[in-house]
Amino acid sequence: MGTRFYFNQDAAAPVTPSSWSAGWNKTTGQDTITTPRSLSLGKIPSSFTGNGNTGTGVSGQFVAVTRFVSLGLTQAQTIGGTVKGQIACRETNATDNYNLAVAIKIVKSDGTDRGVLLAVSASDDVATQPPEMRNLGGGEQENRKLRDSAESTTITLVDVAAERGDFIVVEVGFRQDSTSTAAGVVSACSLSTVSDYPEDDTTTTSQTTWIEFNSYIAVAPELFNSSPPVPPDADATGVADAATSTLVPPTGMIRGDLAVVVAQVSNNSDSVTNANTGGQTWTKEHFTGANDQSVTYFWCTFNGTWSANPTFTCASLSGSQPYSVIMHVWRPPTTDMVWAVDQAFAGADKAAATTITITGQTTAAPNTVTLGTWCSNDDNTWSNLVGTGWASIDPAQQRNMAGADQSMTWARFISATAGTATGNVSKDMAGVGTDAGCVAIQTWKALRYIYPKSILVNQSICRSNCY
């Protein structure tokens, strides 16, 4: 089973490599040269359209444009085999003679090199377009296959013995066969609502760029996407919330994803239920606070098909009490995994204060995700996340201005290794002063599915389904 990665321009890389691969002649210049981005298993929405850098003016040289870093590897493994990929690109002048270039390596947790999978490689054929980049005018870009100097589009890698916690780095840019100093542009980005670029050199419509290794690579889980919150952030003052909220799951979810629905109610009762499952089996976790706030987590391992958009009903709503719901989705290291509780749901009341802290948890298993949620009983804004390894989740908050108002915000912590302490995490409350509320935290682990003994009726089933 191969492993396809996507280029997530809107997320920072988990580590900054200490150097670029040796074959690049230019590694300074425009755009994201100094800011590596994330190489993701899932398609993450991106507003990014392209990165560029200017040529060196020397024929035969390689110009780096940007680089992407995977999440940490969850096991020691030898990575090799072959790689292929599709990236949109363009040259800014028709006479530039630029070809798409790529380099791939493994780095350690401190960013230093572990080994080189692929030295800087590109087609050296500029007699035809493709493989040479094209200038179509108007900033339009055209799909290109990754190639090496032998014009192979299935590129052989050098085996590297990677260790747990290492990272894959993919660097992209262009080779020039001219003395141009004009810019070349590569569009390595993920667009979750559209298809992957096909394996061609002609597509000009905006699609999703990718790179694919022909072997399975075990990387840490990652946040995939979130549903639009219901109601939207900054919902209109005085609008009463409906008792039943329908969530639209993020586009592009696949079997094995972890879906976590967070429901916040401005009362002290446990009254939220899953009215329509959408074809999933949900587990409910709940905390009823003393500050006119309660928070509920519903979670499931996605089975691959939504029979309907799931709905969640709060039976205790009265008048114009606020009721807010959102879904966050994580992708496991591989789709043959299921999710289970690693550290139990915990909730706590919080008095009004500028800084609100959630007590962290320590993971028992590898491949875990931890979700922290802050709730307040006013339409506060939230900022200043503090906690090593923690990251906020968009949107910044979900403010609900029905009735007496409320607000919630979230952060996540992802770990590839067992025994990791998330540490405490805090956010600051602002906007309309400080208000009382509650917090919640829970950790899940991704597990490889093992068939029960009762269905292992012969050795062939065991061989094909046990891990």
Chain-wise SSE layout:
Elements: E1 3-12, E2 37-40, E3 51-54, E4 62-70, E5 77-79, E6 82-91, E7 98-107, E8 113-122, E9 142-145, E10 155-156, E11 160-162, E12 167-176, E13 183-187, E14 210-213, E15 222-226, E16 244-246, E17 258-265, E18 272-276, E19 283-288, E20 294-301, E21 311-314, E22 323-331, E23 337-350, E24 355-358, E25 368-376, E26 381-386, E27 390-392, E28 398-400, E29 406-415, E30 425-430, E31 437-448, H1 459-465
Parallel strand pairs: 2-4
Antiparallel strand pairs: 1-2, 1-14, 3-13, 4-12, 5-11, 6-9, 6-10, 6-13, 6-14, 7-8, 7-12, 15-22, 16-21, 17-20, 17-22, 18-21, 19-20, 23-31, 24-30, 25-29, 25-31, 26-30, 27-29, 28-29
Kindly summarize this structure in a few lines.
The protein contains 1 helix and 31 strands. The chain has 467 residues and is mainly β.
Please describe the structure with a list of short key phrases separated by commas or semicolons.
467 residues; six-stranded antiparallel sheet; Jelly Rolls; 1 helix; 43% strand; 1% helix; mainly beta; 2 domains; elongated; disordered C terminus
